[in-house]
Known about the structure:
CATH 2.40.50.1020; five-stranded antiparallel β-sheet; alpha+beta; three-stranded antiparallel β-sheet; globular; 4 helices
Amino acid sequence: MLKIRIEMSEGVQEEVVIRCREITPEIIRLQQLLSGDSDRSNQFLLYKGDTEYYLNVNDIIFFETEGNAVMAHTKNDMYETRRKLYELEELSGGRFQRISKSAIVNVDKVYSIKRNVTSSSAIEFQGTHKQIYVSRAYYKVLREKLEEKR
């Protein structure tokens, strides 16, 4: 649980101190928000053909590899990125969770998980027909992350 304390003193320069046991994606996101870097860090450079797009991370529902390319999926479209999945995972500040060797998902966009005990479970997103599968090896970690967010 995050403990917040505000102390007011006249003549003191404003300062925010974050004390933590370890640097987590949530701590990084909090630091970016406080420093004003959140707008810049919330955009990814994506490509479709010869055109560059700067999309907000909140518009992306998942990333997946297709052959040698990494594709970013929004509700209605698909773009290519030149980054690797592990880089996108790190840059997202904890918003994306690995769900298989070839995909990461925006945990804020998960609407439902259709559980399948013997194989991969289907993840669905609100407002789109798109879905992706979470492998059995990553299912428990995803559920824990979703519970943490709720």
